[in-house]
Amino acid sequence: MPYPVYVRWIRLRRAIELARDSATLTEAAHGAGFADGSHLTRVCHEMFGLAPSQLIHLVRA
User: Fold this and answer.
1) CA-to-CA distance for 11 and 7, rounded, in angstroms?
2) Which of 32, 35, 39, 61 is the residue whose CA sits 20 to 30 A from 5?
3) 54-58 — which CB contacts under 8 Å span 24+ positions?
4) What pTM value is reported for the model?
5) How far apart are CA 61 and CA 40, in angstroms?
6) Quick one: average pLDDT of 19-43?
7) Which phi and psi (to 5°) does residue 22 adopt?
8) Burial of residue 60 (number of CB atoms within 10 Å: 0-12, 13-18, 19+)
9) Which residues have CB under 8 Å from 53's CB, separation 6+?
């Protein structure tokens, strides 16, 4: 796995953890190192084809 992809994966995991712990998506994005909520959404769509809010519900299940 290329290093930039690995970094995105780690940031996405952290953002999902923060959002699961009741942070807003914007707070989760900033806490995980994304520029803003839309940056988190773009990366999430690129990697999984889902919005972060959809991914959070799938991870909880």
Assistant:
1) 6
2) 61
3) 55/16, 56/16, 56/19, 56/20
4) 0.86
5) 21
6) 95
7) 80, 15
8) exposed
9) 25
